[in-house]
Amino acid sequence: MKVLLVDDDPLALEGIQRMLHWDSFGGELAGCAASGEEALALLERERPDVVISDIRMPGMDGLDLARYIHEHLPHTRMILISGHGEFSYAQQALQYQVTDYLLKPITRAKLNSLEERLAAIQKELTADVPPWYAGDEELRTRVGQALRKGDMAAIGELLIRPDVFRALCGRRDVLGIQLLNYLFLYQAELGKDRDSLDALRQKAMAEYWALSTAGERRAYLAARYYDLMEYAESQKGEYTNPIVSFCLQAIEENFSDSNFNISNLADTLHLSLSYLSTVFKNATGQNISSYLSARRLRQSQKLLRDASIPIREVCFLCGYDDPRYFAKLFKKHTGMTPSEFRNLYAAGSLSAAEETP
């Protein structure tokens, strides 16, 4: 079991690290961080099972860290270190499922109790955990693929598994929270308003925790996933088809990067290039590669109107790394070179109707 320690006091960090009997709970040190910001990098790299953090730190404090873990790493347990005057403040962390505290001053007796709690967590982590569940990224990939393809059957097969049903029964039902988080993270990928999504996610979390049986929780999860997929399927438009929406957003955000291409986009979506191209063309009426090229050319025309930007720089800003290729492609689609386009625009001889859409 991997444990991350976070405290802005280096002596406190050293003391806890040295005084814990790591073998008693099967623990290993994943790292030490002197701030919440520093802890974020270690969280992503080490994926610890438990984070023990001081609640009061400059910048990103323990409560902010607890919020991040709750939203992005729901399988990671959080233990906060708080002083007597901070304990009421620490109660806010209950909404992030933080239920374990180490109260200052830290004594040997308190560390013994902490070791007992860590041993209990270790037992929970190793008790009847499905292999795929242990790999958080694998589960996220599987769920993401099902969402992008509108494959409710895959979600249904996941939810009816006996090991999943048992996991949803647990007092600390991490799996259910993971599945809810993936639902809203995916909607964020599609470009939906993040503030609205945060409010909806908090409401969904509250509704979920109010359910007392695994059967109710499973039905709730199935309904939320089905509603999202059914809505996307019913619209059939280029901005509501989940796959196409993701592509449009990705192109808009990355077309200026010369390393961005359609093959990389297909890999990100875990889809074959031929399947992705077919879905995109059915929804928009054009090839995805043509759409990307047209988006880059529209941007180049916009930038060419500004004579202060060198044509070579326009090339790079529009996602091309070869000025000669850019000039050749530009002439093929507009009938003129970038220089001719710029000169005609400056002379007022180029109307909007003559520009390539």
Describe it for me?
The structure is a single chain. The protein contains 19 helices and five strands. It is an alpha/beta fold and 357 residues long. Strands 2-1-3-4-5 form a five-stranded parallel β-sheet, sandwiched between helices.
Write the layout of secondary structure elements.
Blueprint: E1 2-6, H1 10-19, E2 28-33, H2 36-46, E3 50-54, H3 62-72, E4 77-82, H4 87-90, E5 100-103, H5 108-126, H6 131-134, H7 136-149, H8 152-159, H9 162-169, H10 174-189, H11 194-209, H12 214-235, H13 242-254, H14 262-269, H15 273-284, H16 288-304, H17 311-317, H18 323-334, H19 338-346
Parallel strand pairs: 1-2, 1-3, 3-4, 4-5
Major beta sheet summary: 5 strands, parallel
How much strand content do the residues show?
5-15%
Rough outline: globular
- Class derived from helix and strand content: alpha/beta
- Low-confidence segments, given as residue ranges, are 129-135, 235-240, 352-357
Give, in spatial order, the strands making up the sheet with the most strands: 2-1-3-4-5
Average pLDDT across residues? 81
CA-to-CA gap between the ends? 57 Å
Q: What share of residues is helical? A: 55-70%
Supply the number of helical segments: 19
Radius of gyration: 26 Å
H/E series: EHEHEHEHEHHHHHHHHHHHHHHH
What's the total number of strands?
5
